[in-house]
Amino acid sequence: MNLFEKTSSHWVRYDKYEWREDDKGRLYITPTEKAKPELLEKPTIVWDFHSLLLAIQMMFSFMLTDQKSSMKVCKYCGKVFLASRPNTVFCSGQCKNQYKVYKSRANGRKADLTDE
User: Fold this and answer.
1) Which of 5, 88, 91, 106 could cysteine-pair with 81, CB 3.0–4.6 Å?
2) Which of 12-16, 17-21, 69-73, 96-100 has the lowest mean pLDDT?
3) Coil, strand or helix at 19
4) pTM
């Protein structure tokens, strides 16, 4: 009898197992509390998309969230753009200027409110 035929993880094994019984009397084989895991091979994530569009959308979202990617989201308008430098946060000079204007106006309003 192969104890590992129905395990959910085929890439990790433990050095010690034990039989345990649940409330309904069913027996399970589980690793002991002091069991040491052994990694047999690196786990692989497999994505199974039902459409090409869904796969492209997933890759696009990964590119947007990757810090090392040159694809960024503009801090002002929220549009996606390809950054020429890693520290670029605005898609254009216009967005950068508008952001600075709104930020300075907001800071001016805060100063006016605290003076009153």
Assistant:
1) 91
2) 12-16
3) strand
4) 0.45
Q: Is 18 helix (H, G, I), strand (E, B) or coil?
A: strand
Beta bridge partners of 21: 27
Distance CA 68, CA 86 (A): 8
Q: CA torsion 76→82→87→88, rounded to 10°?
A: -40
Using CA atoms, how far apart are residues 33 and 88, in angstroms rounded to an integer?
A: 50
Angle at 10 between CA 25 and CA 5, to 5 degrees: 50
Q: What six digits make up the tokens of 96?
A: 């950068």
- In contact, 11 and 40? CB cutoff 8 Å: yes
Task: Please give the single-letter amino acid code of residue 14.
Answer: Y
Give Cβ neighbours of residue 47 (< 8 Å, ≥ 6 apart). 55, 58
